């Protein structure tokens, strides 16, 4: 199959611009793009069917066309705040192929007539900051960045910016606040970033993986990309497979690949000869699914139809030795810790759910707490300020739906005792 | 409905009721107009939509999810439902979340009885909680500042206070710290939150988290008798509610009036009320140091004045009032001196200004609706604090441009598109240059050398005025030298003549009722309503044939004449010349020469100590009447406390009666009515018509007066500028005041070149001498003023800084020694 993002990714020295240019026709897409009008590049991306790889799966070209007309300056903010539990795909691109991202950012900026781009990396990516910094330096030296790039008259400055370690800053508007030096809290939408984003100017926020696809599309044409994948989910997807598999890791697959293939063919199957019990297909924010759904094709539409989402592309696999409550408790603990605290239901609800789940996990829960949990989730779902609240709800509700017996097992062995004070 | 209205409004349906509101109105506000209550915690009109408390979720047709009514602008044809089962469940859910970690210590909470959290729980809340765990432990009752106590347990993280700090006061002194359920309101390094406007966060806190330390545990909110009154400090006259219990002042809260205060008050308004219970109040009348009855004191004053007038003529007596009096009191005093004693020796100030403007008298709201605001010699932050907030709002939220022309750096500079600093004492030259530039003429060649401002910058200033469509000029006459105010009015007249520019001005002297005092004719050359002495027919018609027409003495001239023995008697009302007049240290000696000195004041002052007769004045909190703010808005100041002594108006009319005045007003409202009848511009001012929002009196044309340039003071040295300080340690804010922590040390601000030349450094203790007086101060090396000048903030009465200034001079010089 065609590899787009991971093509020759393990080539030694790929982080240096010379190897990138030699091995991957590096920066060749720029020439082609600069020969086109910016709007033609947007049309090309629209035609490719590329959808945002950050989690929401919004069509990329369409997002670009929402930029406020004739308002300048505009900004590009690359979302490299990869923090979704289970997800580690952007990290690999940053680590091994930084120039692919820079080339993608240049293409996006040219298409959207942007002259300043920021690469917002999560605080824990300090190791890749130096990789990215060196790559930027090289790109400036070779004239791919700066003034009048390759004689095109197009100018672009790109800056790396390190976050301070907050999951919420992966939410685009919180990321923009953080970039501005403000507290990392999501902003009201509308206005959407394309209208009023960074410093109040029209801003494109794209995920690392999304931007890294652009050189392929520009070099090979929209049709070449659209030929991969399914009717509505075009192209390939990086999937971070983790959990109880023999070969956890990042795999690039055409969208529409059955999940069972991802587990069996790519990740080497379930560990220790155990059976698949459950999996979370798109990172901790999406509903958990039972093994019976393992033949669902890995694409946006099929996963939605199956009651979950593709999300950020993190497939978390659990075998039949697992009681899912422990996994859900861990995830809930994460959301409690990462809730920014801005809105009431998320700030209070995540902690309350954590307190209840802890009791259940510690076998001092009460059966009626399942209904309470579901009701708390109902009071949170679609009522929080940003999607973090909904993300915190999804695993709890879906796990009670699909794995009620796991809860009942812990509740059944109920011992009388005082509620434990937690946190 | 015309086209304009159609495009400017939208019509939507809320719970079946049709509502038409201006475009951009949030659904939560639209609902309020038809008495549908959508509960909110985080939303506040002045802070804009935020959407964090999620309390205002409503159902909107065609929207799949519930949405927050505070972040949703009303749309044409929108159908909103606030009373469905889905909404009710969400409201109960949000309240349950909000209360999860709230202590519910309502019985001992100051907010009890006026708490949105209590009220919303009562109306929209769940009957019970399902929370079984301990609350997240948080600090209870710790000081956020000496005047604000924060109870972190009660905080619901609505971020109203932090947004206030960010959006309104614009200092980001208060921020959210930490994340998630551990977030909390904080300051940098937990320093005290002691800004000029910090108290407003108490009023906007929707729970009992931010409480007024001075008020804490002193009364339940429902026990207070609340008076709708006005602040009596600066000349903005902010609206506020005075809460008292058992006739004791308990607290001040905001009483929003968008036309005056925009819903805020400064901390001086909120906590500067200790004078109402101070032991330094003048408790009762005194004659030669002995306590006497009111009647006896008034009779003594009348008899003495009468005798002196008989012996030495009417111009041997004089009256020095102040802008701290109410219109009614000032009106009665000038009437008494003019009609009962026959003199125009009447004044209320030591600076020069004349009633009337050659352009429109703008109101405070015009600051926001102009496209250019020009600040001249004004430091709103220290002098008229609520104007500081209004200006910041105008610049940052309304896109208004601002030009600052001042001899010292102020906090407004950073909001100005152009900030020009002239040499201290060169105000007349710079304003003449501006007038020339406005007329398209070249300024005098020595302009830059004399003022420190290059000619091209002054031209840029004039050009900005010429190209603006509406210009609002705010000037402080008290910070300009004598001739300058006239030159400034010439500038206004020139600007007012521009074809495509509307120009208006606000005379912004920092004293409570400075505009009212001018309007009431507390001036030696002007009758009430801006009638100049030359208009003898008008004066005779209104005030009778015996009304004096001879120009009287100014306040400073009265002191001079007292010194020379020509003035025999002086009534000083609500002012303290010994401290507040230039050459103050010499004023006392002059006053001692008088045959009669009557001091009618609220506090025991240095001047009152010298008086033969002392009369008690009730002052803010106890008094009732009207004031006129810098925007020309006449408002009603009602009493919240009952005084032991009769009102000032009663004392004045008793003296007048003793002097033969036949008719006496039956109450203070009769005086208000008389003002409406007698004073130009006040015709429509009725007690009933001004009760709620006040009303603009009509301005009068500018008095045509020749420019009198004052001479410069003697000696060498640096040119002195005395700067105002909001929290000055004086008779009003004494050592017992809750605001005592805001008092500043005596400092002298020098330009670095002068500091180098003098060999002094930051922090040095120096002696500042001038005019035969010395003031101790600590050096601040800053670029607060141009080289050659020196700024001394008037931080206390004790400091005696006014004595450094020579009376009646355009500029005074001081020398600085270690």
Structural commentary:
Chain A is an alpha/beta fold. Chain A has 3 domains: 17-226, Rossmann fold (3-Layer(aba) Sandwich); 236-319, Ubiquitin-like (UB roll) (Roll), CATH 3.10.20; 324-412, Up-down Bundle (de novo design (two linked rop proteins)). Chain A has 17 helices and 11 strands. In chain A, strands 6-5-11-8-9 form a 5-stranded mixed β-sheet, sandwiched between helices. Chain A has a 4-stranded parallel β-sheet with strand order 3-2-1-4, with helices on both faces. Chain A has a two-stranded antiparallel sheet with strand order 7-10. The longest helix of chain A is centred in the C-terminal third of the chain and has 18 residues, at 344-361. Residues 418-423 of chain A have low confidence and may be disordered. In chain B, strand 6 and strand 7 (148-150) form a beta hairpin. Chain B has 25 helices and 37 strands. Chain B folds into 5 domains: 3-83, Ubiquitin-like (UB roll) (Roll), CATH 3.10.20; 131-276, Alpha-Beta Plaits (2-Layer Sandwich), CATH 3.30.70; 286-351 and 514-696, Rossmann fold, CATH 3.40.50; 363-507, Dimethylsulfoxide Reductase, domain 2 (3-Layer(aba) Sandwich); 718-817, Barwin-like endoglucanases (Beta Barrel), CATH 2.40.40. With 818 residues, chain B is α/β, with parallel strands linked by helices. The radius of gyration of chain B is 28 Å and the shape is globular. In chain B, 28% of the residues lie in helices and 19% in strands. In chain B, the strands form 9 sheets. A 7-stranded mixed β-sheet of chain B has the order 15-14-28-27-26-16-17, with helices on both faces. Chains A and B meet through helix 13, helix 14 and helix 15 of A and helix 3 of B.
């Amino acid at each position: 199959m065609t590899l787009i993002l991971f093509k020759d990714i393990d080539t030694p020295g790929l982080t240096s611009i010379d190897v990138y240019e030699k091995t991957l026709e590096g920066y060749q897409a720029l020439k082609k793009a600069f020969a086109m009008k910016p709007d033609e590049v947007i049309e090309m991306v629209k035609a490719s069917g590329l959808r945002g790889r950050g989690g929401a799966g919004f069509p990329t070209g369409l997002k670009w066309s929402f930029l406020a007309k004739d308002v300048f300056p505009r900004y590009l903010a690359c979302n490299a705040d990869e923090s979704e539990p289970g997800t580690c795909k952007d990290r690999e691109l940053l680590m091994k192929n930084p120039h692919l991202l820079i080339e993608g950012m240049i293409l996006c900026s040219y298409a959207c007539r942007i002259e300043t781009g920021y690469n917002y990396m999560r605080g824990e990516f300090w190791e890749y900051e130096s990789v990215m910094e060196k790559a930027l330096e090289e790109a400036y030296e070779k004239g791919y960045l700066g003034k009048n790039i390759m004689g095109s008259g197009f100018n672009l400055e790109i800056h790396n910016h390190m976050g301070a370690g907050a999951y919420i800053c992966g939410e685009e508007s919180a990321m923009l606040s953080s970039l501005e030096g403000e507290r990392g809290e999501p902003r009201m939408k509308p206005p959407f970033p394309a209208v009023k984003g960074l410093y109040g100017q029209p801003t494109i926020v794209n995920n690392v993986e999304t931007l890294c696809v652009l050189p392929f599309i520009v070099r090979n044409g929209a049709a070449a990309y659209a030929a991969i994948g399914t009717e509505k989910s075009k192209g390939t997807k990086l999937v971070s497979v983790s959990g109880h598999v023999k070969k956890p890791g990042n795999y690039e697959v055409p969208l529409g690949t059955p999940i069972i293939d991802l587990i069996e063919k790519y990740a080497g199957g379930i560990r220790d000869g155990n059976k698949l019990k459950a999996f979370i297909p798109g990172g901790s924010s999406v509903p958990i699914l039972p093994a019976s759904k393992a033949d669902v094709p890995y694409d946006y539409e099929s996963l939605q139809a199956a009651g979950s989402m593709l999300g950020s592309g993190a497939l978390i696999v659990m075998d039949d030795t697992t009681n899912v409550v422990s996994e859900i408790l861990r995830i809930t603990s994460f959301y409690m810790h990462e809730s920014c605290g801005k809105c009431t239901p998320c700030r209070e609800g995540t902690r309350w759910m954590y307190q209840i789940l802890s009791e259940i996990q510690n076998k001092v829960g009460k059966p009626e707490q399942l209904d309470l949990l579901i009701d708390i989730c109902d009071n949170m779902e679609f009522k929080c300020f940003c999607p973090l609240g909904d993300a915190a709800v999804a695993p709890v509700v879906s796990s009670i739906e699909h794995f009620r017996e796991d809860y009942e097992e812990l509740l059944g062995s109920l011992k009388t005792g005082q509620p434990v004070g937690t946190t | 409905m015309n086209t304009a209205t159609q495009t400017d409004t939208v019509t939507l349906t809320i719970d079946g009721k049709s509502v038409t509101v201006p475009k951009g109105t949030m659904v939560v506000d639209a609902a309020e107009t038809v008495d549908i209550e959508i509960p909110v915690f985080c939303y506040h009109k002045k802070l804009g939509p935020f959407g964090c408390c999620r309390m205002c979720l409503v159902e909107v047709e065609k929207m799949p999810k519930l949405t927050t009514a505070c972040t949703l602008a009303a749309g044409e044809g929108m159908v909103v439902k606030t009373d469905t089962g889905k909404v009710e469940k969400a409201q109960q859910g949000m309240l349950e979340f909000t209360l999860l970690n709230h202590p519910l210590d309502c019985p001992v909470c100051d907010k009890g009885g006026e708490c949105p959290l209590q009220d919303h729980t009562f109306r929209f809340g769940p009957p019970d909680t399902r929370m079984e765990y301990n609350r997240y432990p948080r600090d209870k009752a710790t000081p956020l500042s000496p005047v604000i106590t924060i109870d972190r347990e009660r905080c619901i993280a609505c971020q109203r206070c932090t947004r206030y700090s960010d959006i309104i006061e614009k200092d980001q002194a208060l921020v959210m710290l930490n994340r998630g359920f551990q977030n909390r309101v904080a300051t940098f390094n937990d320093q005290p939150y002691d800004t000029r406007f910090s108290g407003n966060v108490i009023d906007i806190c929707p729970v009992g988290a931010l409480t007024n330390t001075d008020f804490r545990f002193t009364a339940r909110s429902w026990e207070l008798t609340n008076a709708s009154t006005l602040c009596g400090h600066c000349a903005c006259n902010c609206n506020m509610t005075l809460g008292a219990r058992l006739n004791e002042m308990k607290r001040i809260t905001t009483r929003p009036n968008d036309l005056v205060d925009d819903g805020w008050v400064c901390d001086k308004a909120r906590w500067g009320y200790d004078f109402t219970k101070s032991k330094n109040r003048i408790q009762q009348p005194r004659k030669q140091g002995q306590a006497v009855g009111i009647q006896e004191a008034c009779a003594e004053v009348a008899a003495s004045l009468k005798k002196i007038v008989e012996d030495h003529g009417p111009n041997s007596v004089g009256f020095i009032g102040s802008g701290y009096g109410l219109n009614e009191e000032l009106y009665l005093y000038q009437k008494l001196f003019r009609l009962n004693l026959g003199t125009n020796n009447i004044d209320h100030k030591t600076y020069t200004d004349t009633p009337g403007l050659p352009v429109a008298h703008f109101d405070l709201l015009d600051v926001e609706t102009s496209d250019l605001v020009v600040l001249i010699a004004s430091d709103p932050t220290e002098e008229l604090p609520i104007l500081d907030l209004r200006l910041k709002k105008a610049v940052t939220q309304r896109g208004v441009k601002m030009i600052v022309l001042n001899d010292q750096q102020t906090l407004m500079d950073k909001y100005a598109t152009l900030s020009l600093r002239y040499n201290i004492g060169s105000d007349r030259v710079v304003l003449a240059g501006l007038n020339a530039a406005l007329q398209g003429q070249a300024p005098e060649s020595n302009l830059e050398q004399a003022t420190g401002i290059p000619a091209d910058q002054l031209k840029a200033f004039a050009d900005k005025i010429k190209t603006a469509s509406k210009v609002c000029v705010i000037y402080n006459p008290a910070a300009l030298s004598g001739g300058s105010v006239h030159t400034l009015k010439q500038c206004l007249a020139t600007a007012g003549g521009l074809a495509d520019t509307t120009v208006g001005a606000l005379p912004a002297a920092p004293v409570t009722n400075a505009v009212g005092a001018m309007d009431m004719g507390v001036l030696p050359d002007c009758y009430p309503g801006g009638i100049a002495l030359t208009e003898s027919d008008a004066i005779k018609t209104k005030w009778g044939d015996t009304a004096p027409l001879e120009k009287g003495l100014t306040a400073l001239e009265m002191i001079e004449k007292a010194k020379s023995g020509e003035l025999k008697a002086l009534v000083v009302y609500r002012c303290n010349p010994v401290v507040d007049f230039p050459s103050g240290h010499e004023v006392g000696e002059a006053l001692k020469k008088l045959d009669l000195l009557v001091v009618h004041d609220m506090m025991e002052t240095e001047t009152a100590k010298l008086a033969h007769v002392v009369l008690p004045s009730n002052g803010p909190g106890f008094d009732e009447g009207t004031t006129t703010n810098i925007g020309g808005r006449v408002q009603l100041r009602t009493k919240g406390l009952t005084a032991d002594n009769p009102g000032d108006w009663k004392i004045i009319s008793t003296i007048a009666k003793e002097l033969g005045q036949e008719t006496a007003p039956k109450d203070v409202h009769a005086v208000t009515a008389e003002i409406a009848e007698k004073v130009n511009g006040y015709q429509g001012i009725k007690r009933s018509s001004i009760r709620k929002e006040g009303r603009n009196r009509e301005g009068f044309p500018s008095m045509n007066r020749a420019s009198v340039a004052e001479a410069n003071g003697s000696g060498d040295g640096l040119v002195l500028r005395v700067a105002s300080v909001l929290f000055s340690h004086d008779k009003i804010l004494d050592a017992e005041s809750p605001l005592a922590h805001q008092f500043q040390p005596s400092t002298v601000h020098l330009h670095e070149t002068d500091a180098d030349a003098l060999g002094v450094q930051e922090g040095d203790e120096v002696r500042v001498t001038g005019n035969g007086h010395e003031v101790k101060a600590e050096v601040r090396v800053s670029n607060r003023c141009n080289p050659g000048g020196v700024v001394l903030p008037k931080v206390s009465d004790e400091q005696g800084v006014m004595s450094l200034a020579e009376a009646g001079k355009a500029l005074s010089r001081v020398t600085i020694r270690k």
